[in-house]
Write a structure and sequence with these properties.
Layout: H1 15-24, H2 33-46, E1 50-54, H3 57-67, E2 75-79, H4 84-91, E3 96-100, E4 122-125, H5 137-147, E5 150-154, E6 162-163, E7 166-167, E8 174-178, E9 192-196, H6 202-209, H7 215-220, H8 239-249, H9 252-275, E10 295-298, H10 302-314, H11 330-335, H12 343-351, E11 352-355, H13 363-377
Parallel strand pairs: 2-3, 2-4, 4-5, 5-8
Antiparallel strand pairs: 1-9, 6-7, 8-9, 10-11
Helix pairs in contact: 1-8, 2-8, 3-4, 9-13
């Protein structure tokens, strides 16, 4: 049997054409026609007040952390079951990260336990919409409003996904998306989007985006010269990355339709193993939609997952685990005395397995993978 990869980036066939067009236009450094088209797409489709294309999801999170204007010792609540960028963006601003546990039913942050983590130093809550499935945003916003906290949505995996009809990324004060090649759409391997949902952040976000200068205002004719006015960095991506992303956005509906269909095929094929208690299938709450970013399930033990990964590898199927709990990372343990007890996070670290998911994956491939998993358990 031919190898079934875990991921392959989707290509529409128009990427090279648009990248050539960007080169022909002799505007390569960013914020050109394709950057503006991509940003307008997100603002029009999802109602974001402002969308800024950036070089990665990590950079989007770092801009969010800068806009929160944190002071050393301020606390930010982050799920432990997430990629390191979610925490690192705030640590770089001098904040102390307080790790929260996941829910029992899915890896998203447990909103019911948030209030226990809040202290007078708490400033921000960062929900991560794992696998593109929404966190319980009403519960999170209730806590945030009660204690006057900011909410930054890590929507890295959540493009085109919703909470009670509201697009993810549009609900918190700020939002961050990733267009890494492992995501539903990509800006040519790396890329991201900063979403600003409140007027008070707009001007400073644009200055941070332009290396701490008011250059964007100058090009709009709002000022007659530009200079260094704030901190910032080189967050603006090259125009060829925006051109690549534009080709992907033109085909977003088709991509999402196929990925959701693959997800449903997995779920239907593995439903009986879930009913028998041999695996725990992903839960999509009533308030959330599924954008087909990832199909995962949870094994009963670390040993069982290790054996399954090895079994599938022998069958030429790539099926990796995912995050290692950040509260048990070498960096955290070396720099923090606290040892939080996060049992659900530990279970996902030890037992969650991800299955191949990409646009070109065939339904027959899904059936093959499902059959091999059934063989392993039966």
């Amino acid at each position: 049997m031919a190898l079934i990869d875990f991921n392959r980036p989707y290509l529409t066939g128009k990427e090279a054409h648009y990248m050539y067009q960007a080169v022909f236009n002799k505007r390569l450094s960013g914020n050109g026609m394709f950057t503006k088209k991509c940003q307008q797409f997100f603002e029009d489709r999802y109602g974001f007040k402002k969308a800024l294309l950036v070089t990665s999801g990590t950079d989007a999170l770092e801009m969010c952390a800068m806009l929160c204007e944190l002071k050393p010792g301020d606390e930010v609540i982050v799920p432990s079951y997430t990629f390191v960028s979610t925490a690192l963006a705030f640590i770089r601003e001098g904040a102390k990260v307080i790790f929260a546990d996941s829910m029992e039913g899915n890896p998203n942050i447990d909103a019911e336990k948030l209030e226990n983590l809040i202290t007078p130093r708490t400033k921000v809550i960062v929900p991560v919409h794992y696998a593109g499935v929404a966190c319980d945003m009403d519960a999170i916003l209730d806590v945030a409003n009660k204690y006057h906290l900011m909410v930054v949505e890590d929507a890295a995996q959540a493009v085109d996904s919703y909470y009670k009809g509201r697009p993810l990324g549009s609900i918190g004060h700020l939002g961050a998306f990733s267009f890494h090649e492992t995501k539903n759409i990509t800006a040519g391997g790396e890329g991201g989007l900063l979403v600003i949902n409140e007027e008070r952040f707009l001007r400073r976000a644009e200055i941070l985006w332009e290396k701490g200068t008011n250059r964007a205002e100058f090009f709009r004719g709002a000022v007659n010269k530009y200079g260094w006015v704030d901190t910032g960095s080189s967050f603006l991506p090259a125009e060829i990355n925006a051109a690549f992303l534009w080709a992907q956005l033109e085909n977003l509906e088709e991509v999402q339709s196929k990925r959701r269909a693959l997800w449903e095929r997995y779920y239907a094929g593995l439903q009986d193993l879930g009913a028998e208690g041999k695996i725990s299938l992903p839960q999509v709450p009533d308030y959330a939609t599924n954008n087909g970013h990832m199909f995962y399930f949870v094994c009963r033990s670390l040993d069982e997952r290790t054996s399954l990964i090895r079994y599938l590898k022998d069958k030429e199927i790539q099926a990796p685990f995912h995050y290692l709990a950040l509260h048990k990372s070498d960096y955290y343990l070396a720099n923090n005395a606290e040892r939080p007890n996060l049992p659900n996070t530990d279970r996902y670290t030890d037992c969650l397995i991800r299955l191949p998911m990409f646009y070109e994956l065939q339904f027959e491939d899904v059936d093959t993978i499902v059959n091999e998993i059934r063989m392993f358990f039966n």
